[in-house]
Specification:
Strand content: 5-15%
Shape: globular
Number of strands: 12
Order of helices and strands: HHEHEHEHEHEEHEHEHEEEHE
Number of helices: 10
Structural class: alpha/beta
Length: 335
């Protein structure tokens, strides 16, 4: 299996004539995705919504809840992250939660309508004792009848297999940005490290949740490069979270010029067009988005949100606000 390119094409419009580094034909090249982002806004949304309706319930939204099971103290230097130990953001290093604490949070999330429970940990990658604790949590959450997802950093050979055997449904490991812009954001791990972890996840038979962050000072070409990387994974991810940078004081990206909200909507539409069957998730940054911008994102093909008052350490719209918004738009939760 090769995660860098794919020859699969759901429709003729997805095919690209540009060869990748391996000599295989890419489904989408960067120039084609830039052309999508350059389309008149109405035409872009029409195309995205048309493709969305071919593959998904047009009014269904999948609800996921994210919890930090181990907070702070991460040795990485990701420029956006308040949990990096080297930045002074007021986030304290905390020990891993107990299985009982995770179960309490998962039960509350299920009671509020979430169907997937995601567990995140701040470290470069898990040690074996961490994997053993995580498998207990996964089994416990699965017993509630919820889908499980984990984001634990870089995985060593065999660790994904252990998580899969415990019943993990999805593993999240974002590419963050285009390869050309990557070193502007992170220097403590390489792009290939991320691809290697995604390969471990695929080989273990676990669904891939992989997306990125926009609004980090990148160009439109870099956003297109990110979407191209995701769309040309073989296969492309089942779940694609698109995060809008949440600026946290003390991180290097604090003070970055804000991304135009309609550019964010365009990015959602490009993700939907290039990855028709994926669940495209509105992730970090929704707290700062108006209802109108979120509505446009749903029109552009987003059909998943993080649901709950907090995303790891940053704020998220309250569940009551989300319920009101979904009701106003006539959207319903997917089971």
């Amino acid at each position: 299996m090769n995660l860098n390119t794919s020859s699969n094409c759901e429709t003729k419009t997805e095919q690209s004539g540009a060869p990748g580094n391996s000599g295989r034909m890419l489904r989408w090249n960067v120039a084609e995705i830039i052309a999508l982002l350059d389309m008149p806004f109405n035409d872009l949304l029409y195309r995205a919504q048309t493709i969305h309706r071919q593959h998904h319930d047009p009014n269904g939204v999948q609800l996921s809840t994210l919890i930090s099971v181990k907070t702070g103290g991460c040795p990485e230097d990701c420029g956006y992250c308040p949990q990096a130990a080297r930045y002074h953001t007021g986030i304290e290093n905390q020990a891993m939660l107990s299985v009982d604490e995770v179960m309490t949070a998962a039960s509350a999330a299920k009671a509020k309508g979430a169907s997937r429970f995601c567990m995140g940990a701040a470290w470069r990658g898990p040690k074996q004792r961490d994997i053993e604790q995580m498998t207990e949590m996964i089994r416990a959450v699965k017993s509630l009848g919820m889908e499980t997802c984990a984001t634990l950093g870089l995985l060593k050979p065999g660790q994904a297999q252990q998580l899969g055997e415990a019943g993990l449904d999805y593993y999240n490991h974002n590419l963050d940005t285009a390869p050309e812009f990557y070193e502007e954001i992170i220097t403590t791990r390489q792009y290939q490290d991320r691809l290697d972890t995604l390969q471990e996840v695929r080989d273990a038979g676990i669904n891939v949740c992989c997306g990125g962050i926009v609004g980090m000072g990148e160009t439109r070409e870099s956003r297109a490069g990110l979407i191209a990387q995701l769309a040309n994974l073989n296969p492309y991810p089942e779940s694609v979270p698109i995060n809008h940078l949440v600026q946290v004081k003390g991180t290097p990206l604090y003070g970055t010029e804000a991304l135009d909200p309609l550019e964010f909507v365009r990015t959602i539409a490009a993700a939907r067009i290039t990855m028709p069957k994926a669940m495209v998730r509105l992730s970090a940054g929704r707290q700062e988005m108006s209802d109108a911008v979120q509505a446009l994102c749903f029109l552009a093909g987003a059909n998943s949100i993080f649901y709950g008052d907090k995303l790891l350490t940053t704020s998220n719209p309250e569940t009551d606000r989300d319920r009101v918004l979904l009701d106003k738009l006539g959207l319903h939760a997917l089971s």
